[in-house]
Structures are given as structure tokens and as C-alpha cells.
């Protein structure tokens, strides 16, 4: 792990050079999304972290909070191909990936790509589909390709899945397996808006939906360049030790049955670099890691049965991670 970080991280504090004003573009993108999603600046920033870190985003909360609206706002602010999939219990894997159809005129099978062949895929209510259909996303999210009938087909880059789901205790849901959850870089909770923010939401929609006013801010080339810039953000060796100590604590905690895998470590590492870039820095600080531990780790750990109830496992996982953060010393 330490060798991988050393090989994939800038070690000097040289300025990051781009063909455009990266800070201004990121701020414009955030402002465009926040014109629709009121009072959720931190949530929007985490969504941008996922985009720039080449990750996938899972948004979980009760119906009507704005999960799909956030997904659509982010997708519309990018000048990329977008497909939205409404996951239901009768959705088939071929409805997502695509399939070969026999052409009677040519006498051959013709490949018909599914909606997964887009830059941004909005998977709405992903946990309403069966596990078989959910698993159709695994290869796409991990390797940016899909394999059908022995043929691997590359997906367009950049590629990002933005999935929404209702809490698992709601009726008609199929909980995502650990292997699927681990593919999502961050999991976010929207939460209810404040009364003042909700007042703004009502006024914004008196005559028109502000989502219709969003125009693309970043094109394909600019997004790829920003994603490449993330890898140039400096990560001090003391911060690497801090990150690894947090990971090690999750693996030896008496409260947790399943700790953080190396994939989770890499997700926190890369997302911390992206957070630093969004904040206008070319180096990471300890606060970048601390802010991202819960959205990056809470869906990856499993609370053991002795310490867990049946309904609030998400809160219990977050509480266990908070205890670990208090235990691990922050580098000075």
C-alpha cells in the first residue's frame, strides 16, 4: 500500500499547471449544482470529490429528499453523454448492459449497447432491482468495461455511476451486497433542509424548475484534465501514516466485524487529494482525511452482531468510525 502511494503521488510542492482556470471552473460547477440543491454545500462538494477522483457515488436517504435531483444536477452540469436507469424488480441485466439481437436480413447477431455505455449513468433507486441486475454494474464500475458473450467492450471515459437508494428497511428493497457497496467511492446522506432553505426551494419552483436552467460547465477534455491533476496533489508521508493507522484500527476494532480493504484505503487516499484540489490547494492536510472518513468508510465496514441493532447499522458504523478518529493522533 505504501509503495503504491509513493509511486502514484507527487512528492514535491510544484504548482499544478492547466490550460484553464481550474479553481474558477470547479467553483462554477459547484455554484450551478447549488442553484438547485439548496443548503447542502458539503454534500455537493463530496459529489464533486467523487467526480474528480474517478469514483462512483451512492446517495442514500428517504424518498423526496432530493437524491435524484442532485444526481441530475451534477449530470446536466457536465457536457457528457448521460443515461438514467430506473431500477425496478423486473429490470434485467441485459436492460442495463445491452444484448445481441439476430438480424434476419443480414443473418447475423447485431450488438445493441445498453444505457451503461454513457459517461454518466444515473442509477435511480438501485436497491429496488434484484441482486442479479445489481451485479451487472460490478465489472463496469471496477474496470470501465463490460463483457458479454466473451467479448469485452470498453466504456466511454470519463465514466461515473451516480446511484440513489432508499434505506434498506423500506419495503421492496434488496440490500446491496458488500462487493457492490465497495465499488462506490463515497456514500452520502442528504438529510432534510432547514426551514429557510426549504422556503427558497418553494420560491425557486414557483414558475419553473431550476434544473432546466443548468447548462454544461465542464466538457470531456476539461474533466479528464482535472482528474489527472488530482494525482499531482502532494500527500505528505505523515498523512500516509495517519490514513493507514485509521485503516488498521478498523481491522482490529472489537466493534467491527469487517474492516477497511485496500480498495477502501485507496478510495480515501484519492478522494482526499480531490478535496484538496477543490479547496484550491496542491497539497493535502489532515482535515481532508478526517472529513472524508465517514462518507468513504461507513458503507464499507460491518458492525458485529454483539454491538449492532437491526435498524441503525449505518449510524452505529459511523459512531464506531468517530471513536477511531478520536483515538488516532492527528499529525502536527
Structure write-up:
The longest helix has 17 residues, at 262-278. This protein is of the alpha/beta class. α2 (22-34) crosses α3. It folds into 2 domains: 1-16 and 232-332, Helicase, Ruva Protein, domain 3 (Orthogonal Bundle); 20-229, P-loop containing nucleotide triphosphate hydrolases (Rossmann fold, 3-Layer(aba) Sandwich). The protein has helices spanning 2-7, 22-34, 41-52, 67-76, 93-97, 131-134, 138-143, 178-181, 195-204, 220-230, 237-252, 262-278, 286-297, 313-327; strands at 57-60, 78-79, 82-86, 98-103, 108-113, 120-124, 145-148, 151-154, 160-165, 186-188, 218-219, 256-258, 302-303. The two termini are 23 Å apart. It has 14 helices and 13 strands.
Question: Could you give a quick summary of the protein structure above?
Answer:
By secondary structure, this protein is α/β, with parallel strands linked by helices. The protein contains 14 helices and 13 strands. α12 (262-278) packs across α13 (286-297).
CATH architecture of the largest domain: 3-Layer(aba) Sandwich
Question: Strands of the largest sheet, in order across it?
Answer: 3-6-9-1-10
Principal-axis shape? globular
Strand content: 15-25%
Count of DSSP H/I helices: 14
Largest sheet: 5 strands, parallel
Radius of gyration: 20 Å
Give the SSE order as H and E letters: HHHEHEEHEEEHHEEEHEHEHHEHHEH
